Amino acid sequence: MFSIHPDDLTSEPTRRLLALHLAGMHANSPPGHVFALDLSGLQTPDVTVWSVRAGDDVVGIGALKELGDGSAEVKSMRTHPDHLRRGVAALLLDHIVREARARGLTRLSLETGSGPAFEPALALYRKRGFVNGEAFADYQASAFNQFLHLALRD
Protein backbone atom coordinates (compact mmCIF):
# COMPACT_ATOMS: atom_id res chain seq x y z
CA MET A 1 0.00 0.00 0.00
CA PHE A 2 1.37 3.42 -1.00
CA SER A 3 0.83 6.71 0.82
CA ILE A 4 1.67 10.26 -0.24
CA HIS A 5 3.24 12.78 2.14
CA PRO A 6 4.56 16.32 1.88
CA ASP A 7 8.34 16.03 1.90
CA ASP A 8 10.81 18.60 3.24
CA LEU A 9 13.71 16.85 1.49
CA THR A 10 15.66 16.24 4.69
CA SER A 11 15.50 12.45 4.74
CA GLU A 12 18.34 10.44 3.23
CA PRO A 13 16.01 8.14 1.22
CA THR A 14 14.39 11.16 -0.44
CA ARG A 15 17.76 12.77 -1.15
CA ARG A 16 19.07 9.52 -2.65
CA LEU A 17 16.06 9.28 -4.95
CA LEU A 18 16.50 12.91 -5.98
CA ALA A 19 20.18 12.24 -6.72
CA LEU A 20 19.17 9.22 -8.81
CA HIS A 21 16.67 11.41 -10.68
CA LEU A 22 19.28 14.08 -11.46
CA ALA A 23 21.82 11.47 -12.57
CA GLY A 24 19.23 9.92 -14.88
CA MET A 25 18.36 13.27 -16.40
CA HIS A 26 22.02 14.01 -17.11
CA ALA A 27 22.66 10.52 -18.50
CA ASN A 28 19.74 10.74 -20.94
CA SER A 29 19.93 14.38 -22.03
CA PRO A 30 22.38 16.35 -24.16
CA PRO A 31 24.62 18.80 -22.30
CA GLY A 32 22.79 22.00 -21.45
CA HIS A 33 19.34 20.40 -21.74
CA VAL A 34 18.72 19.29 -18.16
CA PHE A 35 16.23 21.52 -16.35
CA ALA A 36 15.58 19.25 -13.36
CA LEU A 37 15.72 21.12 -10.08
CA ASP A 38 18.42 20.20 -7.61
CA LEU A 39 17.88 20.10 -3.86
CA SER A 40 18.14 23.86 -3.40
CA GLY A 41 15.80 24.47 -6.35
CA LEU A 42 13.17 22.25 -4.77
CA GLN A 43 13.44 23.97 -1.40
CA THR A 44 12.02 27.31 -2.53
CA PRO A 45 8.67 28.70 -1.33
CA ASP A 46 7.01 28.25 -4.75
CA VAL A 47 7.69 24.49 -4.81
CA THR A 48 5.83 21.75 -2.95
CA VAL A 49 7.38 18.28 -2.92
CA TRP A 50 5.67 15.01 -2.10
CA SER A 51 7.07 11.56 -1.57
CA VAL A 52 5.29 8.28 -2.09
CA ARG A 53 6.04 5.76 0.60
CA ALA A 54 5.59 2.06 1.06
CA GLY A 55 5.98 1.77 4.79
CA ASP A 56 9.24 3.57 5.57
CA ASP A 57 10.59 3.27 2.01
CA VAL A 58 10.50 6.28 -0.32
CA VAL A 59 9.34 4.80 -3.63
CA GLY A 60 8.62 8.01 -5.55
CA ILE A 61 8.92 11.78 -5.53
CA GLY A 62 7.28 14.61 -7.40
CA ALA A 63 6.82 18.34 -7.10
CA LEU A 64 4.57 21.21 -8.08
CA LYS A 65 6.18 24.57 -8.88
CA GLU A 66 3.77 27.49 -8.96
CA LEU A 67 4.60 29.92 -11.76
CA GLY A 68 2.65 32.89 -10.43
CA ASP A 69 0.30 33.33 -13.37
CA GLY A 70 -2.38 30.82 -12.41
CA SER A 71 -0.30 27.97 -13.75
CA ALA A 72 2.17 25.50 -12.32
CA GLU A 73 4.78 23.04 -13.47
CA VAL A 74 5.23 19.38 -12.63
CA LYS A 75 8.85 18.86 -11.50
CA SER A 76 11.11 16.03 -10.36
CA MET A 77 8.79 13.09 -11.04
CA ARG A 78 10.73 9.90 -10.30
CA THR A 79 9.84 6.40 -9.24
CA HIS A 80 12.47 4.30 -7.48
CA PRO A 81 13.70 1.60 -9.93
CA ASP A 82 12.59 -1.18 -7.55
CA HIS A 83 8.99 0.03 -7.82
CA LEU A 84 8.55 0.75 -11.53
CA ARG A 85 5.26 -0.29 -13.18
CA ARG A 86 3.45 -0.54 -9.85
CA GLY A 87 1.37 2.64 -10.13
CA VAL A 88 3.61 4.95 -8.10
CA ALA A 89 3.93 7.65 -10.78
CA ALA A 90 0.24 7.54 -11.68
CA LEU A 91 -0.75 7.88 -8.02
CA LEU A 92 1.59 10.82 -7.54
CA LEU A 93 0.64 12.58 -10.78
CA ASP A 94 -3.05 12.27 -9.92
CA HIS A 95 -2.28 13.77 -6.50
CA ILE A 96 -0.39 16.69 -8.07
CA VAL A 97 -3.25 17.37 -10.50
CA ARG A 98 -5.80 17.32 -7.66
CA GLU A 99 -3.63 19.66 -5.60
CA ALA A 100 -3.25 22.07 -8.53
CA ARG A 101 -7.02 22.13 -8.99
CA ALA A 102 -7.56 22.64 -5.25
CA ARG A 103 -5.23 25.65 -5.40
CA GLY A 104 -7.38 27.13 -8.16
CA LEU A 105 -4.71 26.86 -10.83
CA THR A 106 -5.84 26.90 -14.45
CA ARG A 107 -3.02 25.06 -16.20
CA LEU A 108 -0.42 22.46 -15.34
CA SER A 109 2.64 22.19 -17.59
CA LEU A 110 5.86 20.25 -17.80
CA GLU A 111 9.07 20.13 -19.78
CA THR A 112 10.70 16.83 -20.58
CA GLY A 113 13.09 15.29 -23.04
CA SER A 114 12.84 13.00 -26.04
CA GLY A 115 13.99 9.45 -26.54
CA PRO A 116 13.42 6.02 -25.07
CA ALA A 117 14.21 7.00 -21.47
CA PHE A 118 11.36 9.52 -21.53
CA GLU A 119 8.70 7.43 -23.28
CA PRO A 120 7.15 5.79 -20.18
CA ALA A 121 6.65 9.17 -18.50
CA LEU A 122 5.29 10.72 -21.70
CA ALA A 123 2.79 7.89 -22.03
CA LEU A 124 1.61 8.49 -18.46
CA TYR A 125 1.25 12.24 -18.97
CA ARG A 126 -0.68 11.79 -22.20
CA LYS A 127 -2.92 9.16 -20.63
CA ARG A 128 -3.79 11.73 -17.96
CA GLY A 129 -4.78 14.32 -20.59
CA PHE A 130 -1.59 16.32 -21.08
CA VAL A 131 -1.10 17.48 -24.67
CA ASN A 132 1.93 18.79 -26.53
CA GLY A 133 2.17 22.56 -26.67
CA GLU A 134 4.36 25.60 -26.65
CA ALA A 135 7.33 26.41 -24.47
CA PHE A 136 6.38 28.15 -21.23
CA ALA A 137 8.04 30.11 -18.42
CA ASP A 138 11.71 30.63 -19.30
CA TYR A 139 12.11 27.50 -21.42
CA GLN A 140 13.37 27.65 -24.99
CA ALA A 141 12.20 25.01 -27.45
CA SER A 142 14.85 22.71 -28.92
CA ALA A 143 14.98 19.51 -30.93
CA PHE A 144 15.35 17.58 -27.65
CA ASN A 145 12.83 19.00 -25.24
CA GLN A 146 9.07 18.97 -25.41
CA PHE A 147 6.33 20.71 -23.49
CA LEU A 148 3.05 19.26 -22.31
CA HIS A 149 0.05 21.06 -20.82
CA LEU A 150 -3.12 20.13 -19.01
CA ALA A 151 -6.00 22.60 -18.79
CA LEU A 152 -7.43 22.42 -15.27
CA ARG A 153 -10.62 24.32 -16.02
CA ASP A 154 -13.01 23.95 -18.92
Structural class per helix/strand content? alpha+beta
Strand fraction equals: 25-35%
Main sheet: strand order: 1-2-3-4-5-7-6
> What distance lies between the first and last C-alpha atoms, to the nearest angstrom?
33 Å
The biggest beta sheet is recorded as: 7 strands, mixed
Which blocks of ≥5 consecutive residues have pLDDT under 50? none
- What are the secondary-structure elements, in order, as H or E? EHHEEEHEHEE
CATH class: Alpha Beta
How many β-strand runs?
7
Report the radius of gyration as a whole number of Å: 14 Å
**Number of domains as seen in the coordinates:** 1
- Give the proportion of residues in helices: 25-40%
| CATH fold category name | Aminopeptidase
Shape descriptor reads globular
CATH superfamily (homologous) name:
Gcn5-related N-acetyltransferase (GNAT)
Helical stretch count?
4
Average per-residue pLDDT, rounded, comes to 95
User: In CATH terms, what is the architecture?
Assistant: 3-Layer(aba) Sandwich
Q: Helices, strands, pairings?
A:
Blueprint: E1 3-6, H1 12-27, H2 39-42, E2 47-54, E3 57-66, E4 71-79, H3 88-102, E5 107-112, H4 119-127, E6 131-133, E7 146-151
Parallel strand pairs: 4-5
Antiparallel strand pairs: 1-2, 2-3, 3-4, 5-7, 6-7
Q: Can I get a quick summary?
A:
Keywords: Acyltransferase, Transferase. This protein is of the alpha+beta class and 154 residues long.
